[in-house]
Automatic annotation (TrEMBL):
<dbReference type="Pfam" id="PF01381">
    <property type="entry name" value="HTH_3"/>
</dbReference>
<dbReference type="GO" id="GO:0003677">
    <property type="term" value="F:DNA binding"/>
</dbReference>
<feature type="domain" description="HTH cro/C1-type">
    <location>
        <begin position="37"/>
        <end position="86"/>
    </location>
</feature>
<dbReference type="InterPro" id="IPR010982">
    <property type="entry name" value="Lambda_DNA-bd_dom_sf"/>
</dbReference>
<dbReference type="InterPro" id="IPR001387">
    <property type="entry name" value="Cro/C1-type_HTH"/>
</dbReference>
<protein>
    <submittedName>
        <fullName>Helix-turn-helix domain-containing protein</fullName>
    </submittedName>
</protein>
Length: 248
């Protein structure tokens, strides 16, 4: 469901007073829960397990049916929101502000195909990109060195594969050794409880129509068990935009 679909669905809802705090409409809660679950590539049963509610409770929420506030809070926390996010009364936004909020939240997202980063081809494709964006939601600081070392490895591979570099790695055996070293490091991260995915995002810039960014998604297996089967992630296009001339 894209932003225009959401706006159309919300436009069909009865008008709400904007001077009295009211809970979010169950239709909006249903969309947010379903969207957030799909972003994580979680099954209904996975969300139910993390939220400590029944599968039928999650299904009822996603159908836009009412459930207890306690169940809503458990689902909200499991998906990374605060308690009360799905039921606490608040002053409703007017139509224009609601549209702006939706566009701000969802309108800049682009779907990028990803797969486990476990082949030399995946390393080579990432290294040939014009830049690398590492996304690491909810990864504890204890993994900082692992992630920093992976980024340095990929930077080295990118340097080695640059067309303008007369590199000592120009022979195939040494390049393959570098790829294998990177893959060995990734396997070590996986053994320590992380999932590492990668994909390529077309990110054309002014005067750079073929600009590409390697997307590296790193998540903890403990809190994101569905990641290994994830086929895509959503990337905010503003995070891969180059600053225009004169901008910081």
């Amino acid at each position: 469901m894209n932003v225009s679909d959401i706006v159309e669905k919300i436009a069909q809802m009865p008008e709400r007073r904007t001077d009295v705090p009211t809970p979010p409409p169950v239709e909006v809660v249903a969309f947010v829960v379903r969207w957030s679950r799909n972003l994580k590539n979680w099954k209904v049963s996975t969300l139910a397990d993390f939220a400590r509610v029944s599968i039928s409770t999650v299904e009822r929420v996603e159908r836009g049916e009412r459930v207890s506030e306690e169940a809503l809070d458990r689902i909200a926390v499991a998906l990374g929101y605060e308690k009360g996010a799905y039921h606490a009364p608040r002053i409703p936004l007017g139509p224009e502000k609601a549209f702006e909020s939706l566009v701000e939240t969802y309108g800049h997202l682009e779907e990028v195909a990803v797969s486990p980063m476990k082949t030399q081809r995946a390393i080579r494709e990432a290294a040939k990109c014009d830049g690398i964006l590492v996304h690491r939601p909810d990864v504890p600081q204890t993994y900082d060195d692992d992630i920093a070392n992976l980024a340095e490895y990929l930077d080295l591979a990118s340097f080695v594969l640059a067309d303008w570099i007369d590199s000592s790695f120009d022979d195939e055996p040494r390049r393959r050794k570098l790829y294998n070293d990177i893959l060995g490091h990734i396997r070590g991260m996986q053994r320590r409880g992380l999932t590492v995915l990668s994909g390529i995002m077309a990110a054309p810039q002014p005067k750079l129509p073929t600009w590409k960014i390697a997307i590296v998604s790193i998540t903890p297996k403990l809190t994101d068990p569905g990641a290994i089967k994830r086929s895509h992630v959503y990337v905010d296009k503003r995070n891969v935009a180059l600053p225009l001339a004169g901008e910081p």
